[in-house]
Write a structure and sequence with these properties.
Layout (H helix, E strand, L loop, with lengths): L11 H11 L11 E3 L5 E3 L6 E6 L9 H15 L3 E6 L6 H13 L3 E4 L5 H10 L4 E4 L10 E6 L1 H19 L3 E6 L4 H17 L4 E6 L6 H13 L4 E4 L5 H8 L3 E3 L14 E7 L1 H14 L6 E4 L6 E4 L16 H12 L5 H4 L4 E2 L5 E3 L7 H5 L3 H7 L27
Parallel strand pairs: 3-4, 3-5, 5-6, 6-7, 7-13, 8-9, 8-10, 10-11, 11-12
Antiparallel strand pairs: 1-2, 12-14, 15-16
Helix pairs in contact: 2-9, 5-6, 5-10, 7-8
Length: about 425
């Protein structure tokens, strides 16, 4: 799951300044025709005669990361079908704000409401029952009612693994085997992605290590840069970004070092010469597929977790029509291309990444030889989570994602 902790809400001026300074420019989004809305938000009007989609964003629509990837992915649908209209409402905190905004959108007559953070789950579940003729798609979560409410996530760990392969090769070429991870929260998703990256690193640099800086936020440009600078000061040459802005890339570039950005396809733009690639989301085709199914009356919302062969994720520099970033060592390019081809063919998946033997960073065999983690293991869905969310279709994890793979230094702190 993604964005599973409430973000700090920033003043609009601060957000705009941060993205302008550190992030790529946003693609223009559909003009909103607005009316007064509860809780001080502006609720767009539907466009008559069209299939109307509303994107409810936890962050700023041009954040250079998660929210921008969703916004532009949804907007892409309008380029494929002029009878689809897309609007967004941004900086919507979970809880009362989200409930007011989504209820207003449902009353307006939107056909599909996309919610882009885990905490929206309880609200969306309630509103799906209240508005049975409105469809709700949750990014991300555990819940589904099988009729008009489902959730969706993708295996971005596939692309983090490829990034790790590149990182290991770059480290070997530079003669510095120390890497760093700007990690948002000590949650299964963040842990899983860091572990996948490190498992990829081990393919090309078995001796490489990685330090972690936990920043306890998804979006805070200052904290992200400070964490990156702390890692650089500790001697790392390559930084993996797990948060939303490309600020750590800027810090790395200023120090003459390297970084991988995250979430948004164009997030290398602040310092492309020092960006080794971007594991990114490609929401548009997945959204369009859901819209087509809804229009045909065949949509069966559930718990969908999609691998690379669906096209939901990509690794910038290696997808069709792209060129590897200038800092990627030539010798690793065919290795990454070959592994990516397996992913796109569906013959190498997230379960192959996490197939044993795998040791944790204390030297203990955490995944035995020949065994793969289950989906519940990957997501850290334990018995408490199942009980709390009434997940009757899930089985509690046994190798829950609460450990760091061999090569990652440090420990996992408690949630603040």
């Amino acid at each position: 799951m993604h964005k599973t902790i409430l973000r700090l809400t920033l003043l609009a001026v601060v957000v705009v300044f941060a993205v302008t300074a550190c992030g790529p420019k946003a693609t223009p989004v559909a003009t909103e025709v607005a009316t007064a809305a509860p809780a001080g938000f502006t609720i767009p009007e539907i466009e008559s005669g069209k299939f109307n989609v509303a994107v409810v964003l936890i962050g700023f629509h041009a954040d250079g990361g998660w929210s921008q990837a969703h916004t532009e992915g949804a907007q892409w649908m309008t380029t494929q079908d002029p009878n689809i209209a897309v609007q967004y409402v941004e900086l919507v905190n979970p809880g009362p704000d989200a409930e007011s905004v989504m209820r207003s959108l449902a009353r307006k007559g939107f056909d599909l409401i996309l919610g882009t953070t885990f905490e929206y789950g309880p609200t969306m579940e309630t509103l799906a029952a209240e508005f049975p003729n409105v469809n709700f798609l949750h990014l991300t979560g555990y819940r589904s009612n099988g009729t008009n409410y489902g959730n969706l996530m993708g295996a971005i760990e596939d692309m983090k693994y490829l990034a790790g392969m590149v990182a290991g090769a770059r480290a070997k070429a530079d003669g510095n085997t120390k890497m760093g991870y700007v990690a948002p929260w000590p949650l299964p998703e963040v842990i899983r992605l860091g572990n996948a990256f490190m498992l990829g690193v081990k393919v090309t640099c078995p001796e490489c290590t990685m330090e972690v800086r936990w920043i306890n936020t998804w979006y805070d440009p200052d904290k992200e840069k400070q964490a990156a600078q702390s890692l650089l000061d500790a001697g790392v040459d390559i930084i993996l970004i797990g948060s939303d802005t490309p600020g750590p890339l800027v810090a790395a570039a200023n120090a003459g070092k390297w970084a991988f950005t995250y979430d948004y396809i164009n997030s290398c733009s602040p310092a492309p010469e020092k960006c080794l690639g971007t594991p990114y989301w490609n929401w548009g085709p997945v959204y369009l597929n859901a819209v087509r199914q809804i229009q045909a009356g065949t949509w069966k919302p559930g718990n969908d977790y999609l691998d690379a062969d669906t096209g939901i994720v990509g690794f910038y520099g290696f997808m069709e029509g792209q060129t590897p970033q200038p800092g990627v060592p030539a010798e690793v390019i065919p290795l990454v291309q070959a592994k990516l081809a397996e992913m796109l063919a569906g013959t190498f998946t997230r379960f192959d990444i996490f197939k044993g033997p795998i040791k944790d960073n204390t030297g203990k065999v955490i995944v035995p030889a020949g065994q793969s983690l289950t989906q519940e293991d990957l997501e850290g869905i334990d018995a408490g989570t199942i009980a709390a969310f009434s997940l009757t279709d899930r089985t509690a994890c046994t190798i829950c994602m609460n450990w760091l793979v061999e090569g990652i230094q440090g420990t996992i702190p408690a949630m603040p």
